[in-house]
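Quick sanity check, Phosphoesterase:
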Amino acid sequence: MTTRLLLISDTHIPGRARTLPDAVRREADVADLIVHAGDWVSASVLGDLRAHGDVLGVCGNNDGDDLRAILPEIARREIEGVRVAVVHETGQKQRREERMDTAFPDADLLVFGHSHIPWDTTSPSGMRLLNPGSPTDRRRQPHHTLMVVELADGGIRSVDLRRI
């Protein structure tokens, strides 16, 4: 069996967009799990995503008390034998993989946000680190982005960074 994940982060609604882009909603409709790595800003985004499917999310540094009351700083779930962890911020990019190996020794996949910069690397221990960028606030990036990930048989089958 294959499980399809939609990865997004840093939506910053309503600051950067009024609502989620239609491309995000379409991907959410076909995903088995929607993963949001923080900086929702408005709890309405969580409600919107929940209308499209199961959501695994964390709070970010721009999220208020309303979101902090219902979302953890770190979320974990085993999916298809893959130990997934989600966190908003991982710090500087220098030595990120080594620091995250220490911080998340029990994870196979770490999803994070904060920088709005898409990221796909593997740590020395073999943990995959993914940042989907932002579907609404590209900052200095050339495109708004999201990621679609497929998990199966205890591993990561595919990772697809998509421009929207």
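Posting the structure with no commentary besides this: The chain is about 20% helix and 35% strand.
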